[in-house]
Amino acid sequence: MLYPTIGLFxxxxxxxxxxxxGCRAFNMFHADLLHEYADxxxxxxxxxxxTPQEALExxxxxxxRLGMRAIMxxxxxxxxxxxxxEITPQANRASGWFDTFGLDSAYDYDPVWAKCVELKxxxxxxxxx
Length: 129
Description:
The chain is built from four helices and five strands; from the N terminus they run H-E-H-E-E-H-E-H-E. It has helices at about 15-35, 50-65, 80-85, 110-120; strands at about 45, 70-75, 75-80, 95-100, 125. It has a three-stranded parallel beta sheet. The radius of gyration is 16 Å and the shape is globular.
């Protein structure tokens, strides 16, 4: 497995368009680069987790379209503190809270975990990291 060390940055980009494009480009590059060596090397896809929807879209693309069998999900997302953002938007750069996708998450990530189970039943893959 080739862990996406340089790919650890795009899932944490704050700008949604840049984050999604960065993850997609890295995954396409990694899959294309190593396709010829699939019998010996397995690229690991990066999955953005700012919202369940973007995670689901990249999961389906990397596993079903690119045929990748291993993924690395961001372990947290830094989110702004709403009350502080209202007072001074500039403070968001230096403050926030870490959402770790559990019970108190800003979103319900159950569909993401269910999609992982579903995709694994169709094509075995591995969660890395």
